[in-house]
Design goal:
Layout (H helix, E strand, L loop, with lengths): L9 H7 L3 E2 L4 E2 L4 E9 L4 E2 L4 E8 L4 E2 L4 E11 L4 E2 L4 E3 L1 E3 L11 E3 L2 E3 L4 E2 L4 E2 L4 E2 L4 E2 L4 E2 L2 E2 L4 E2 L11
Parallel strand pairs: 1-3, 2-4, 3-5, 4-6, 5-7, 6-8, 7-9, 7-12, 8-13, 9-14, 12-15, 13-16, 14-17, 15-18, 16-19
Antiparallel strand pairs: 10-11
Length: 166
């Protein structure tokens, strides 16, 4: 009999939909998975109350902290070796198109997300569809990431300000 607090077993993760699960993967039973595919690299850790959906691939020693959301339903999320997300980070591969004028349902913006090796994210960061973050980056608390971020970048949030959109 499995304890309610023991991590998910390799066989359970494969049954959820992952094609590959590396050695030493630790996934909380309190994490939530929906329509999942992809792979978990060796030593990956997924903590309580993380929510993962769609296609997600991790390299080795990736850490997804509590209350993170990874939504790979509009493309793939690829996290290279050593990527770390602090609490409450969100990664989206599909989002409403906020540039679209008018009322009613909005079109969707979709795109793969790739995070380079040994990149870390402070709490409450948001990564938008199509983002590509280079190797060895440090992304500060509350940053919103879209498009490309050069390898070795250090980003911080500069607070709230009003902007005019085209």
């Amino acid at each position: 009999m499995t304890s309610a607090m023991s991590p998910l077993a390799r066989e359970e993760l494969l049954a959820l939909g992952f094609a590959e699960v590396g050695e030493g993967v630790t996934v909380s039973r309190r994490a939530v998975f929906h329509a999942i595919s992809g792979k978990l690299g060796a030593g990956t850790r997924i903590d309580d109350f993380a929510v993962l959906t769609g296609h997600i691939e991790t390299g080795s020693k990736v850490h997804i902290s509590p209350f993170c959301f990874l939504g790979g339903t509009g493309g793939a999320i690829v996290l290279d070796d050593g990527v770390g997300f602090s609490t409450h980070c969100s990664v989206f591969t599909k989002s409403d198109d906020y540039q679209q004028p008018g009322d009613g349902p909005r079109d969707k913006v979709c795109g793969d997300v790739r995070i380079g090796k040994h990149t870390i994210f402070g709490s409450q960061c948001v990564v938008l569809p199509g983002a590509e973050v280079g190797e060895g980056c440090s992304i500060g608390i509350g940053c919103v990431v879209k498009d490309a971020v050069a390898a070795g970048s250090r980003l911080v949030s500069m607070g709230i300000r009003s902007v005019n959109l085209p």
